[in-house]
Amino acid sequence: MSEITAGAPVAGGSDCLLEVTNLHKSFSAPAGELHILQGLAFELAEGEFLAVVGESGSGKSTMLQILGTLERPDRGEMLLDGEAIESLSSTRQAHLRNEKIGFVYQAHHLIPELTALENVALPLLVQGLPEKDAQLRASALLARLGLAARESHVPARLSGGEAQRVAVARALVTSPRLLLADEPTGNLDEHTAQEVFVLLQALCREENAAVVMVTHSMALARSCDRILYLHDGRLIQR
Ligand SMILES: Nc1ncnc2c1ncn2[C@@H]1O[C@H](COP(=O)(O)OP(=O)(O)OP(=O)(O)O)[C@@H](O)[C@H]1O
């Protein structure tokens, strides 16, 4: 096993999108401080699809929350497109998330009162796009994911796999540079998980979105460009 250092070359030698250096995060617990991330470092190339695996409780979700600027690290640096995003104000971080980062979780987190189309179009409306344009782009993405006939369904009228595909469309509708996926197929049966993963991978490739995907499935991880293991608070490559 070798540790990934900030200076390690990124896969394929392409341009670096994200550079993470010496990231630390601890939580207070009744038994004392939990040192979850202990100098985590890695690079992610433009359009690269990275899988992160690790034992339960090793800090994978914490790492994604920090990469997505939803939580602040205790120390360390994260350069996204050359910009030090960990030190931005909360308002700037919110803008950055809206512009450059997409999220997919294990649960779809769709808004129950909105149709599939409205759910997918929403991030574009937040960005200020006219409703007609937002709906056209959302509709095209849903069609790409095989959901043209489900546009007007609310989440309760979608299957688990369909709802997760809508969540993928919503995450990618703004063409983010970086997609953070926390066990995006973890709630699905094996066959549906594979189907959703293949679509997610294809769409990210088409949109040139780089991905950090946390997964417990080694089968899915092996289909990614690279696998890193979160162990003892650091990312290592085997
Ligand atoms: N806000 C918090 N306060 C205190 N402890 C926390 C907090 N968030 C996470 N932890 C602890 O940090 C550790 C890492 O949690 P995290 O959810 O990042 O692990 P994980 O690798 O994603 O786990 P899993 O694979 O089970 O989802 C756990 O022990 C968890 O209880």
User: What's the Cα radius of gyration?
Assistant: 18 Å
Named once each, the bound ligands are: adenosine-5'-triphosphate
What would the CATH topology be? Rossmann fold
Query: H/E order of the elements?
Result: EEEEHEEHEHHHEHEHEE
Describe the strand arrangement of the main beta sheet, using strand numbers. 1-11-10-4-9-8-7
- Please report the total strand number as a whole number: 11
The overall pLDDT, averaged over residues, is 92
* N→C terminal distance: 5 Å
The total count of helices amounts to 7
Give a brief outline of the structure.
By secondary structure, this protein is α/β, with parallel strands linked by helices.
SSE layout and pairings?
Blueprint: E1 2-3, E2 16-29, E3 32-45, E4 49-53, H1 60-67, E5 75-80, E6 83-84, H2 90-100, E7 101-104, H3 116-126, H4 131-144, H5 160-172, E8 178-182, H6 190-207, E9 210-214, H7 218-222, E10 226-231, E11 234-237
Parallel strand pairs: 4-9, 4-10, 7-8, 8-9
Antiparallel strand pairs: 1-11, 2-3, 2-5, 5-6, 10-11
Helix pairs in contact: 3-4, 3-5, 5-6
The site of adenosine-5'-triphosphate has 11 residues, from strand 3 and helix 1.
